[in-house]
Amino acid sequence: MHRRNVLTAAAGFAATSALPLARAAQIWQPGEMADGALDSALLEALPGKRELIKRSFRPPNFETPIEYFRAAITPNDAFFVRYHLGSIPDAAAASWRVRVGGAAAGTPVELNLVQLQREFEPVEIVAVCQCSGNRRGMFQPHVQGVAWGVGAMGNARWKGVRLRDVLKRAGVKPDALEVAFNGADEPAMEGTPDYIKSIPLDRALDENTLIAWEMNGAPLPRWNGFPARIIVPGWTATYWVKHLTDIDVRTKPQGGFWMIPAYRLPAGRFSGIDRFPSQENATNVPITNMLVNSLVTSIHDGMRVHAGQPVEVAGIAWDGGSGIRTVQVSLDHGQSWSDAPLGKDLGRFSFRQFSYTFKPDRTGTQLVLVKATSQRGETQVSDLVPNPAGYHHNVIPRIALAVA
Amino acid sequence: MKNFVIGLGATSPRATAARAARTGAVLACALAFAFTTVPVIAGEEKVQIATAPGVDQVRANCIACHSLDYIQMNSPFLDRKGWEAVITKMEKAFGAPIRAEDKDAILNYLATAYGKK
């Protein structure tokens, strides 16, 4: 990648810095967010984290500021934090155990962290972890929920063991249907449903689905699932259960609020989504893989640039695991598109950097459109696909530069 | 009757003494039959919601499970019906023990101070 250009662009970004959308502190936030979301955002640091965009203090929901996405890998201490439940454990690695059992498991197994690390083959994978509701705050009309901007996501190199190797230790019976996960985080109220999520058996047995204890070469931060969490590359973070304690090999679909009605898409409304047949019904289906998307980090709407001077359109693109085929830029309202050079390929589940430079030739407004296309041919959409929970915002951005 | 106490050292099945010591502050929500303690994330005291009729009922019923910035973050785009649906969701889906006699005051507060204009 053109590191020098990225840094130049970063400096330029800061220099223009009367960021038009900064409300609370110096935070860039998308302008289409609701006033209450913009105004209640604060730059706050959880213990062990840098200052992130606070959406809610408790349960802690903290978003990664856009400048961290100028790198392909998101630092651990800047990685977003998302919890549904208010009681978050501070588990000691030495006392941690994960239990594998269930109606479709052969022999129940209990493993400590040392056993997990020593008795199975360690593997590493670079993968995007993105909250299903990333960009929910940008939905118009607005929908209720955590009002995320663009930073409820991150990309890390995860180290762990294959879930399927651990499942094999217990034994998987032929009637296994789903594998469900529970973590140590708990509700504040007895009546609040515990956070339990399942994935289809084939996804659980996929070679890329891991139990991970390491992130970018360091132990998982407390706020990102210490001491171990599930990694489901390609699928949204709702399935990446943190502080993993229980693995349930099931013969029946997992119920509970967090499987249904939560994390659902209207049936038939989205294309390019992976099936989860045992959880589907006539009206809705569970969210599964991420849709192809991109984020421009070098320029922003309303930014002032100069005619005849180079402007870099740089950022990251990702999808649900097929990899990025192209990122294209249009300077003529979408009539023609040019391929942006892509950065280093860190694997099909990773952010892929791109950078395209042009010189605006006349003063006035220059519209910049950016569109990523995945290896399986899916592309970003022109118009938002409405859905009640505010998922899958992957609209082609229209960035208006003020050319002086 | 409910009493709300902000202080140190409260305990419950869900919050250990170690956790209380670590977080340094525990917000204790004393319910009629059970004590529930919730670790407070440093900074939560910065959340200031509108002073208006019903704010006491909002604090009394909502703060045990979540910080009150959830209200601000979801404003001002929900109308009265939208906020009513939120209250229903908190009760039915999340098991919030909202006192029946407080519900009207909570809804009026949310619809007036944080409702769609």
Give a description of the structure:
The complex is a heterodimer of chains A (404) and B (117). Chain A is mostly beta strands. Chain A is 9% helix and 31% strand. Chain A contains five helices and 24 strands. Chain A has helices spanning 3-15, 35-40, 113-118, 163-170, 201-204, and strands at 42-45, 51-56, 61-63, 81-82, 97-101, 109-112, 122-130, 153-162, 178-183, 196-200, 210-215, 218-219, 229-231, 244-250, 264-266, 284-286, 293-296, 304-305, 311-318, 324-330, 338-339, 352-358, 364-374, 398-403. In chain A, the strands form six sheets. In chain A, strands 6-5-14-9-10 form a five-stranded mixed sheet. In chain A, strands 7, 8, 11, 12 and 13 form a five-stranded antiparallel sheet that branches. A five-stranded mixed sheet of chain A has the order 18-24-23-20-21, with no helix packed on it. In chain A, β5 (97-101) and β6 (109-112) form a beta hairpin. Mean pLDDT of chain A is 93; it is low at 1-25. Chain B has two domains: 1-46, no CATH class; 47-117, Cytochrome Bc1 Complex, Chain D, domain 2 (Orthogonal Bundle), CATH 1.10.760. Chain B has helices at 17-23, 55-62, 69-73, 80-92, 103-113, and strands spanning 3-7, 26-30, 35-39. In chain B, strands 1-2-3 form a three-stranded antiparallel sheet, with helices on one face. In chain B, β2 and β3 form a beta hairpin. In chain B, α4 (80-92) packs across α5. Residues 1-38 of chain B have low confidence and may be disordered. The A-B interface holds A 34-37, 39-40, 42, 44, 46-47, 54-60, 86-88, 90, 137, 141-142, 144-147, 186-193, 257, 261 and B 14-15, 18-19, 22, 34, 36, 38-44, 46-47, 64-67, 69-78, 82, 85-86, 93-97, 114.
List the helices and strands and how they pair.
The complex is a heterodimer of chains A (404) and B (117).
Chain A: H1 3-15, H2 35-40, E1 42-45, E2 51-56, E3 61-63, E4 81-82, E5 97-101, E6 109-112, H3 113-118, E7 122-130, E8 153-162, H4 163-170, E9 178-183, E10 196-200, H5 201-204, E11 210-215, E12 218-219, E13 229-231, E14 244-250, E15 264-266, E16 284-286, E17 293-296, E18 304-305, E19 311-318, E20 324-330, E21 338-339, E22 352-358, E23 364-374, E24 398-403
Parallel strand pairs in A: 5-14, 18-24
Antiparallel strand pairs in A: 1-2, 2-3, 3-4, 5-6, 7-8, 8-11, 9-10, 9-14, 11-12, 11-13, 15-16, 17-19, 19-22, 20-21, 20-23, 23-24
Chain B: E1 3-7, H1 17-23, E2 26-30, E3 35-39, H2 55-62, H3 69-73, H4 80-92, H5 103-113
